[in-house]
Design a protein that fits this description.
heterodimer, A: 295 residues, mainly alpha, three-stranded mixed sheet, two-stranded antiparallel sheet, 40% helix, B: 299 residues, 12 helices, globular
Chain lengths: 295, 299
Amino acid sequence: MSRLRSFTAIFVVTMFTLLFTSNAVAVCDQSGASQPDRDLWNMHGCWQDFFLWQFRAYDIREGDWKDRGWYDACNQNMEYPKHWNAAYLVTYGLADNNDQSFHGTIDYRATAEAAGSLFHDSLNHTASDDPNNLGKYIHHIFGSNEIQTTCAMFSTNSFYGNPAARAADWMHEGWHGWEDKYGWDGGSAGGHFPCQMQPDGSCRNGNCTINGCDYFYFHGIASYVFGALWETDGTANRFHSPNQVEVEFSCDVADQPQPWVPKSVRDSSKAEANARSSQRFINGPGYYCGDPRPW
Amino acid sequence: MWFPVSKESMIRLAVALSLIIAFTGCRSREIAPSQAQPGAKQASGPAPGALFPSKPLHQPPSLEGTGQAAVASVDKFIAWAAASTPSEREDGRRSIHAAHDNAEVAKALVEEAKAVRVRDPSRALVVLGILGEQRHALGEAFFRELLGEPFPKAGQQTAEGEVMEQTTVGILQAKAVDGLAYMRNPAADEEVLRVAAAHPSRIVRAEAIAAYLWNHPDSPQARAVLSKRLRRDELVFMDRVTRQEGETARSFNTKLASFLRAHPEVTPPVPKRLEKPNPPKADGSPPSWSGSEKKKEAP
């Protein structure tokens, strides 16, 4: 009798365990949203027409986002609402000033969105718990390629957990898609050039202090008409690297935003542009954005 | 192995299985059925184009009071400041300058910066910006304290070798050095120069260089002072191309051309093709059946 009870108990516990863990995947911190996420959110509220467009434009799939706000898309603490919040910034947040912006909305949208184009082959957006990356571009042999956005881009206690940084990362990853489409060699360290260990123990490559360095291909304002970011002549005169596209986007959000873009979004975008521009380029520094006045 | 089962045990087993089936049913109803598009639990709001015109602009709350009133005032001001638009910049500056002498406001800002710097570093950036613009001695002391903190040597490292804690602290310390340089007094300047030369983070050193030069505009003397202190491989940061807000293309492009003439070493090498590129996907247009349309050349 006691053996039967044990068997029944084990069976029941096993079944319950299986039932309640089969769909439970790890998710990011869903306890809150950063100041810039909240401020940007308040500019649109729960605008369902937008996310019902965005999930198609970014090829967001239920299976990838079901525990991350797919069913609760107006809960700004969840990953999917944060994802579409950042997409809102890309879609509407830039001024597109021909005399001042590095590139236009048409360029940044084509880089981030899913559709195959001159910018990249088709891709889809997923979320990932990977603690070792901010974002990731993955080439798939079959089906569309993939841009992963990781927890660091969603969590409030990470500097990157804000909509400007999230969108900027899509520019970076989307540009790996451009390199992939046209067969450009970005380097052996995850699509970037590695740093080399120095006698003082640091790892550097020129003026880059990270193990994932790019070149900065300096260009003037209006050198690229809006829509022409994808173009290159195959020389350093007309070319972009992933970190450069990310810096130029961040700078455009900070300096050339629409009149409604909140200060917390602009400030975090400027901080990221300048930090990245200072330490990610072998031939750096890249551009400095704005001025250092505190307010 | 099969266990002998009594009638009582059979009933218990049946009850257990029924419970499992019931819970399975509950669970399948608890999660929304598979749906082709995302859903929300709230009703949709209006299009944002209708929302923004109703936002009251140019009405910053004042920064004032003592004790709890100062804390409440600071909290309200931060909320306004974080959400403020580009056209409200001067409104914000005027309100902050009006509180220049208010130590209680400065103290409340410092406390808020300490409270949120780990929980929400992007909010801390806004708070540090207000504190820097206020130019109060308590703010200056806090900036020194923040810059004096040991820089993290380890933490969550990405595949690219970025230590996340270093980036977060570096960005906040860079904002602190902006505030310190804006104090525009000899002691603060000396600390900015020390940071520009010796801070372990390139992010912070680069910001110190930019802030020092911006606060001593067009001063050959400032450049001379700075150039004696900087690492040799970072002298180029003094000439860094800056795109200022609202700057025209002609102005920026002229500066860029001068920079590239002065620093031919920053010219990047010719980009390389992958030796073994990934095979192209079949997600474009199919090949022309007649062969009349040639495939577009890759750039």
